[in-house]
Amino acid sequence: LTYFYLEFPFKEVPGLDSPQELTFLSRFVDFTQTFAKPEEEFQTDQKPTKSKVLARKGIFNPRQVTVKATPVQKATTPQQKTQPKKPLRETSVTIKGDWNIVAELAKQNVDRLNYDPGSPENLAAYSSVLAAKRIENINPKRPAKVSTSDEHIYLPGTTTPAEFLQLPTAKDPVFQDIIQSDQGSVFITDLILSTLMNFTRAVYPWDVVVEKTSDGKIIFEKSEDSMLDQLTVNENAAENMPDEEEPENSVNNPKKLWKESIRINKAFQMQAVKQPEFKLGEPHPSQSPQTAPFGYNYRKWKLGEDTYVVVRSQVDAYIPESSNALSKLVAVNEYDARITGGYRRKLEAQRGQVLAMEFKNNSCKMSKWAAQALLSGVDYIKVGFFSREKPNTSTSHELLGVSKFRTADFASQLNLNLNSCWGTFRAIVEIFKKAEPGKYTIVKDPYKPMVRVYSTGAEKQEEEKF
Residue 382 phi/psi, 5° resolution? Predict the structure, then answer.
């Protein structure tokens, strides 16, 4: 046992009033502990490294090792992502110097508007519709070839070229009778109404002409060569919109794609139906034997105190196996398989994914279709999926599949609420109810989800089209 002489300042230790015996400290200090000799190493499980062994022998001193400094890299500023070039768009009509802005409506003004006009009153129904074929069994392995050139779109079961009725609101003889009989105060077609209801989803510009008569009636009309007649392609696909700088002679120029989409829809509407016909009413006064076999409903909704809107809507077909339920026929088309992933590859096994992509990329167009179907009172929507037979040919296509939806389900997939649509349109009507009699033009902003209402004077203006 080794003894140590300790000098400890007990008086400075708090709690000790007087020096204590060594036995008192033994409570805290183990004097029996043995210490290793200086030359002995502490035994560890880890083997000494090579550098430590060399250091003991005096061969290597780790403290004298010089380490080459790594070159300091110059600070680099993070590269900013190049913003996509903003397309140069103009309004669809030239804004003239004597036009005055009456009002503006932006997305934030109408997003929370709702209005329930109740059930419509059926004023009249005209013409007959044909039966929709049962073609849901068409698939990419058994496609149907469809000619989509203008000269090869025939009336169903004939070789007679089909004529598609383009009847302005004011020139519609049925509308003229309704206006004269004071059965409404606002008059509009389903095409114009669905466009205004969904203006917040639109990307491309368009315009609508409005006339307020001296007796307070409001008539909505599309201008000649209106953009409303165009069926856009991938309008809402932020990363896959058609290149607006594509040469005009290219089949993938946006305007060429819109016309291609129109031809495809017309061809589908004519080739997806057959006899027998289902009569909705008497032949429409403006139809001829060469006119495409569509039906027309004239329906009236109440928009407020002493405000009634009359809408002309189109019916495309009826479905015999669904108790003669009425149907709308529409078509979507792919022009570049790299964008869609390929209808031919995905439609059979991943149709839900294809539909979700179309709902996203063509939200505006498909929401207008849904609104038109709800306004016309049809129960079903049939969607055909078309692809070019050859990538660089826009006049020959193949039908790769058909899907059938209940109208309400189709609208729900697009998050379309008809009461919200009516709220938007009612806000537009209120602008004209407060305005003076005259002619006006609603102009969709070429970049923003906004419309502006211009007063264009009492006389009809000749617009320079975009």
Answer: -105, 130
Residues of the chain with pLDDT under 50: 3-13, 16-18, 20-26, 28-29, 31, 34-45, 60, 65, 67, 72, 75-78, 81, 459-466
Length of the chain: 466
pTM for the model? 0.80
Q: How far apart are CA 390 and CA 313, in angstroms?
A: 35
Task: Report cis status (omega within 30 of 0) of the bond before 120.
Answer: no
Cα 9 to Cα 19: distance, rounded to the nearest angstrom: 8
For the CA atoms of 152, 158, 160, 161, the dihedral, rounded to the nearest 10 degrees, stands at -40
Q: Which of 146, 105, 140 minimizes the C-alpha distance to 266?
A: 146
The whole-angstrom separation of Cα 75 and Cα 169 is 66
Cβ-contact 330, 388 below 8 angstroms: no
Radius of gyration over every alpha carbon of the chain, rounded to an integer in angstroms: 39
CA 203 – CA 235 distance, rounded (Å)? 6
What does the block give as tokens for 1?
């046992």
Strand partners, 211: 219, 439
Q: Please state, in angstroms and as integers, the Cα–Cα distance from residue 391 to each residue in 332, 346, 441, following that order.
A: 16, 17, 39
